[in-house]
Design a protein that fits this description.
Blueprint (H helix, E strand, L loop, with lengths): L13 E2 L2 E8 L5 E3 L7 E4 L19 E9 L8 E6 L2 E2 L1 E6 L2 E8 L5 E4 L7 E9 L26 E2 L3 E6 L6 E6 L4 E6 L4 E5 L2 E5 L3 E4 L15 E6 L4 E6 L4 E4 L2 E4 L2 E2 L2 E6 L15 H11 L4 E4 L6 H10 L2 E5 L8 H9 L14 H18 L5 E8 L7 H11 L4 E6 L10 E5 L14 E7 L1 E3 L15 E3 L2 H21 L4 E5 L23 H11 L3
Parallel strand pairs: 24-25, 24-33, 25-26, 26-27, 27-28, 29-30, 30-33, 31-32
Antiparallel strand pairs: 1-13, 2-3, 2-4, 2-5, 5-11, 6-10, 6-13, 7-12, 8-9, 8-11, 14-15, 15-18, 16-17, 16-19, 19-20, 21-22, 22-23
Length: 545
C-alpha cells in the first residue's frame, strides 16, 4: 500500500520527502536565509515554522521560499509516464523541472497537484518549488493561522507541509475513482480506461463504459464499532489500482440523523490538527492512528476536523479504525473578534445577511476551495458531515452556498452555519455553547447538534506549549476537580438533552494546542488527562446503555 494515497494506491512510488536545499528571499529579492547564515536546507514535508523542519522560523509575509533537490529518473514501462505529486503547500507553489517553468499549479485553494513530467525527464533531474505565502491576502483559506499567535489562534505555517512524490504509471492509466455507496451496493466510476475488471473478494467483475455496480452478499455495514472495509482492485489492460469501499448511509429524517437507517448519537471532539514539532504536519507516520485510538479508548466516535483539511492518511486511518469525521470547510475572508465572537457569545446572533462578506474574489475563492475539498474527500466513508461556515467566519449567502454543496454531494449531512448567525438552508440546527447552560431548542424541526461546548482547562505545565500562557473557558487546578467538572457537564446537560433528542455533541477538544490547554490529551500527547473508565461510562449512557 502507498501510505501517501491509501485509497488510490499503486505499488510503485518514490517519496521525495527528506532534506531539500532551501533559500528564502523577500518580495524585493533580498536573501533572508541561505547557507551563508547557517540555513540552506529544510526537512520536507515540515513547514519552516516547525522545529522538525530544521528551520524553526516564520519569514515575512510575501517571502519567496525556494526549495530544490535532485532525483534520478526511475525506469518506466514502455510508453509509461511519470507523475509528480505535490500534496500540500501554503499558499501557492510555482514548479520548475530542469529549468522549465511549469507554472503556479499547486495552491491551498486547489489542494494536491499532479503533473505529468515525463517529457522533461533527464537521467538526473533538478526539481525546484517556489512557494509564496501572504496571510494578508484574505482570498486564501487560512484556518487558525495568525501573524500574532495567541489564545485560540495559532502559529502560522507556510511552504510545503505535505509530501512530494513521484509515481510511474502506464500510458493509459487510471486517473481517478468515484465511489458511491449505499446499504446494499456500491457504484464505482472510473476515470481512465473504459474496460477492465474489479477484483473484490477473490472474484473478478468486468466493467464497461468506465462504471460498475457491485452488490456484496450479506452486506456488512460500516460503523465506528465495526469499521468494515471491502478491499478491491481496479485492473485494466495496462494499470492496477488498489482501493476500498464501505457500505454505509447517513441521512436526516425529521429531527434525527440516521446512520445505516438507525438513529445515531455523534459523541465527538473538536480536532484542530496541530502537532508538537510539526505544527500542521504530524511528526510520525502513525501520529493520526495514535490520536484516533486514544479518543476511541475514551468512548468517542466522532472528530470534528476544525477548519483544516488533513493528508489522506488521516481519513484512511479514520476509515479503517472507525472514527466518523465532521469535516469543516476552511475559512477565508476578514475575521472580526467583536462581530464574529464576542457579540454572538453574549447573545447577539443576528447579522443582516446583505452586510456579510461582499468581496466577490473572496467568495469565489471559498467556493473553489469547497469544491476541491469535496472532490478529494468524497470517497472516504468516515466523512459523514460537512460544515460550511464556522461562527460566521467568512459567511455569505448561506442558502446559495448550501445548494452549491448539495449539488456536489447529496449523500452527507450539511451544517451551513455552525454556532450562530443561523440563516438560510441547512440540514441541522447547530449551536456553540461555552459560558451558559445548554438547553435543547424548543420545537426544533431539524436535528440539533451541539457542535462546540466545554473547553475546560487543566494544565500540566511540563507537558504544555508555554508554561506561562493559558487559554480556555473554565479553569481547574487539579486533575480530579477538572474530571469531576467534565463528568458533571455531561451528566447534567448533555445526557438529559440526548434523552430529549440531541443528536450530537462536540467537546472542545482532542488535545491542548499551544496556549489552549483545554484538551483531553496534553499538547505533546504524552499524557491523557481524562479518566478512561469514567469517560467510557459517559459514552455508554449517551448510547442509552
Amino acid at each position: 500500500m502507498n501510505p501517501l494515497r491509501p485509497q488510490f494506491s499503486r505499488d510503485d512510488y518514490i517519496s521525495l520527502d527528506g532534506i531539500w536545499n532551501f533559500t528564502v528571499m523577500d518580495a524585493k529579492g533580498n536573501t533572508l536565509s541561505d547557507a551563508a547564515d547557517g540555513g540552506g536546507s529544510i526537512r520536507v514535508p515540515y513547514p519552516p515554522e516547525a522545529p522538525l523542519s530544521g528551520v524553526g522560523k516564520h519569514f515575512p509575509e510575501g517571502s519567496k521560499l525556494w526549495y530544490s533537490r535532485k532525483f534520478t529518473a526511475p525506469s518506466l514501462p514502455e510508453k509509461g509516464r511519470l507523475l509528480l505529486h505535490v500534496d500540500g503547500v501554503d499558499q501557492k507553489a510555482r514548479i520548475f523541472l530542469n529549468g522549465k517553468d511549469l507554472g503556479t499549479v499547486c495552491t491551498v485553494l486547489n489542494g494536491p497537484a499532479s503533473l505529468d513530467v515525463t517529457d522533461l525527464l533527464q537521467p538526473e533531474n533538478t526539481l525546484i518549488l517556489c512557494v509564496t505565502d501572504d496571510l494578508r491576502d484574505l482570498r486564501f483559506p487560512y484556518g487558525k493561522q495568525t501573524m500574532e499567535r495567541g489564545g485560540m489562534w495559532y502559529t502560522p505555517v507556510s511552504g510545503i507541509w505535505q509530501s512530494v512524490w513521484l509515481e510511474p504509471v502506464p500510458e493509459n492509466y487510471i486517473r481517478e475513482l468515484k465511489i458511491i455507496p449505499s446499504l446494499d451496493s456500491v457504484h464505482i466510476r472510473i476515470d481512465g480506461p473504459k474496460e477492465g475488471v474489479i477484483r473484490c473478494g477473490g472474484t473478478d467483475y468486468p466493467f464497461k463504459n468506465s462504471r460498475i455496480t457491485l452488490r456484496p452478499e450479506a452486506p456488512r455495514h460500516w460503523t465506528p464499532d465495526d469499521p468494515y472495509l471491502y478491499r478491491f482492485s481496479v485492473i485494466t489492460a495496462q494499470d492496477k489500482v488498489d482501493s476500498y469501499f464501505a457500505l454505509r448511509k447517513v441521512e436526516v429524517r425529521g429531527s434525527r440523523i440516521l446512520l445505516n437507517g438507525r438513529p445515531f448519537f455523534f459523541h465527538g471532539l473538536l480536532d484542530q490538527g496541530y502537532w508538537p514539532g510539526g505544527l500542521w504536519t504530524p511528526p510520525e507516520e502513525d501520529s493520526f492512528e495514535k490520536d484516533i485510538l486514544a479518543v476511541k479508548r475514551l468512548g468517542f466516535n466522532t472528530l470534528r476536523k476544525h477548519i483544516k483539511a488533513e493528508p489522506e492518511r488521516f481519513y484512511y486511518d479514520c476509515d479503517r479504525l472507525g472514527m466518523i469525521v465532521f469535516q469543516d470547510m476552511i475559512n477565508n475572508g476578514h475575521y472580526s473578534f467583536a462581530r464574529d465572537t464576542v457579540l454572538p457569545t453574549l447573545g447577539f446572533q443576528k447579522w443582516p445577511a446583505a452586510l456579510r462578506r461582499r468581496n466577490t474574489p473572496v467568495r469565489r475563492a471559498f467556493l473553489h476551495a469547497m469544491r476541491s475539498t469535496v472532490r478529494r474527500l468524497y470517497n472516504h466513508p468516515c466523512v459523514c458531515y460537512w460544515t460550511i461556515f464556522n461562527e460566521g467566519w467568512g459567511q455569505f449567502r448561506s442558502s446559495q452556498t448550501y445548494k452549491t454543496l448539495r449539488e456536489l454531494d447529496s449523500t452527507r449531512v450539511i451544517d451551513t452555519t455552525s454556532g450562530w448567525f443561523r440563516d438560510g438552508d441547512t440540514d441541522v440546527e447547530s449551536r456553540h455553547v461555552y459560558f451558559r447552560k445548554f438547553r435543547l431548542p424548543k420545537k426544533a424541526k431539524k436535528p440539533v447538534i451541539l457542535s462546540e461546548f466545554g473547553g475546560y482547562v487543566f494544565k500540566i505545565p511540563e507537558h504544555s506549549f508555554d508554561p506561562d500562557k493559558t487559554y480556555g473557558y473554565r479553569f481547574y487546578k487539579s486533575r480530579e476537580s477538572w474530571m469531576a467538572a467534565l463528568e458533571k457537564l455531561y451528566q447534567k446537560q448533555i445526557i438529559p438533552a440526548v434523552r430529549k433528542g440531541l443528536c450530537g455533541a462536540i467537546y472542545t477538544q482532542v488535545s491542548d494546542v499551544e496556549d489552549e490547554c483545554n484538551g483531553l490529551l496534553t499538547y505533546d500527547r504524552a499524557l491523557c488527562k481524562a479518566d478512561e473508565a469514567r469517560m467510557q461510562a459517559i459514552a455508554k449512557q449517551l448510547k442509552g446503555e
